[in-house]
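Protein 1 of 2
SEQ + STRUCT:
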Amino acid sequence: MDKSIEAYFVETFIRKNRRDRIMLELTNPRKRYDGLDRFCHQAADLLDPEKVVMKANNLENLPGFVMFMKTHDETCTILSPNGNVDGQKLPFMEAVRQAILCQDAAIIVGNGFAVVFTEPMKGGHDKYLLTETKKKGTW
């Protein structure tokens, strides 16, 4: 897997005080699962709140997110502790479908944005749309 995807995600969307540890875990094959597993229940503590544009457990149904997907039709990489999903490169809309079906955390990394799905719990996944520069009302 291309480690630059992990480096981009960590440097762009993770809180500064959590970057070193997450980067070490994501780039070490023995610790990768633990690093990705942190997003199951700790996403809110790891993600830079300045980059969060939308958060909802039904994110994929929100008109703003649907518009965002339509305007960002590109190939993305999925990071997940689920080995069947981890490393897949898919068109954005298909990556979102895979993340919804995944029974684990999933991170979709695109050009200038990321979408984080926490582990499904009662009520669904918490889902976050993050962009490099927070732009309200654009979508």
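Protein 2 of 2
SEQ + STRUCT:
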Amino acid sequence: MQMESLLSFMFLVLIISPIIASMPERHIDYSLYQLQLAQDSWRVLYLRGDFSDLKDQDRYYLESEFDLIRSQTGFCIFMEGITFTNCRDGEPHPPVTSISRTIFYDHQPKNVTFSLRH
């Protein structure tokens, strides 16, 4: 009886092994987490007043605020491509996640793209 059960188990393992090996590896999708992180980063900057009527000379202040968020999240932040960013190392930066928001820029409302990249 034990020999039959051992042979049955070995046959089962022999049949199931190739099936399990051929299954594609599953990757965790972090896109919803990254979208929430982008929205939270935007909200923090907005509530701190960092987007209150931006001008070109406010770039360095805003980028230092981006650095503060990068130290806590590990993400590079881009606003309007590389107009405002804390990652100016010359490499192409494909965005991980992007959201569209409206700010006041030189006393005019402007739609901007806010992006995160790991």
